[in-house]
Write a structure and sequence with these properties.
Helices cover about 35% and strands about 15% of the residues. The protein is built from 11 helices and 11 strands. Helix 1 packs parallel to helix 6, helix 3 packs parallel to helix 4 and helix 7 crosses helix 8. The strands form 2 sheets. It has a 6-stranded parallel sheet with strand order 7-8-6-9-10-11, sandwiched between helices.
Length: about 350
């Protein structure tokens, strides 16, 4: 199992990457590309945007041919939409990339390998396709049996509030202290960053908890598995994935992730975000089914939409409310959360 610290993507679809943004309308639509560019900047040669694309990664804009000339090996489709569908412009871009001599990787629910025109282009050019949302065969049904090792799971008040960033930041901070800690990817972006993982939202429902058990097996070295959370128990569309991860991860520790400026669940304007205390308690109750000793160790805020002073005030307010350290992993780090984790599991 590859981990974030020693990520080694398949030699067949290795970087450098050209990040395809297409005609994305906002930053949430390019979260896959942004995550790869943030955590693996050395792998990214540039971005490809259509004229109506609004967001940017502040990478050089370039064509596929220019990227190929600069050494790009693979075009990574870094944009997504609700449902993960493959729009006609993405199909056309994938075919053009293959004809240019680039491999193509994607994390959409609609698979590259399911489009006959894309498959034909890959075959005639001797190029490789990789679908990150394609679970490995043989994932078992979860059994809930206790297993050795320590595990931390990030959970959220909503989708896309920073669970992957928080998990990767925790891994980095813990490794800098000389601790054994391994990021376990459960989403397409995390898989691209780590080089391996389980696309948990593409796993058949009966096997979700088993997928979490499979990605984080028993370990006997005293280290931590840091499992990337997905969705939210309070999101009517995606709560099932969140619950399966809670049960299969058997987490010893939870970190709650939240975006304070968000006013409703992503994509569902009729559903407000949950209050933090009930949200954290609901996650703890669900986690106790397979690990009655689970503990909360921190809150991670996405304060990208706030001024620095507002962000600091929000962290203090939430820390006082929940009696837990609260930080923005990107702008503040996660040292206080790591301190709390280590204090809770000192023995």
């Amino acid at each position: 199992m590859s981990t974030q610290g020693d990520a080694k993507p398949s030699a067949q679809w290795r970087p450098p990457y050209l990040l395809y943004l297409g005609n994305a309308a906002d930053d949430l639509a390019i979260k896959t590309a942004r995550g790869v560019a943030y955590w693996r900047p050395e792998w990214c040669v540039g971005q490809l945007r259509h004229p109506d694309c609004k967001p940017t990664l502040d990478l050089p804009d370039m064509s596929m041919a220019e990227a190929k000339d600069l050494g790009a090996n693979t075009m990574l489709i870094g944009t997504a939409n609700a449902g993960g569908t493959m729009a006609p412009e993405i199909v056309a871009a994938a075919i053009e990339a293959l004809d240019t001599g680039l491999n193509v990787v994607a994390g959409l629910h609609h698979k590259l390998r399911e489009n006959p025109d894309i498959v034909a282009a890959a075959q005639r050019n001797g190029r490789v396709l990789f679908d990150a949302r394609d679970p490995a065969p043989g994932i078992p049904v979860g059994n809930g049996r206790p297993r050795a090792g320590r595990r931390l799971l990030t959970v959220g008040t909503d989708c896309s509030v920073g669970k992957m960033y928080t998990t990767l930041a925790l891994e980095r901070a813990m490794r800098q202290r000389g601790l054994l800690a391994d990021f376990r990817a459960t989403g397409q972006t995390g898989i691209f960053v780590a080089g391996a993982g389980v696309p948990i939202d593409a796993v058949v429902a009966d096997f979700i908890s088993g997928g979490a058990e499979w990605i984080s097996p028993a370990r006997h070295d005293g280290g931590w598995d840091l499992i990337e959370g997905q969705g939210s128990l309070f999101h009517p569309s995606y709560a099932g994935v969140s619950l399966g991860l809670l049960h299969g991860s058997q987490p010893d520790a939870l970190v709650l992730c939240h975006e304070p400026t968000r006013r409703h669940m992503r994509g569902l304007p009729d559903y407000p975000l949950p209050e933090l205390k009930p949200c954290l308690e609901a996650n703890l109750v669900a986690a106790r089914l397979t690990n009655p000793a689970v503990k909360p160790v921190g809150v991670a805020l996405n304060t990208s939409g706030m001024a620095a002073g507002e962000a600091a005030d929000a962290c203090k307010r939430i820390s006082d409310l929940l009696q837990l350290p609260c930080q923005d992993p990107v702008t503040m780090g996660v040292e206080a959360i790591v301190d709390q984790l280590l204090a809770c599991f000192a023995n």
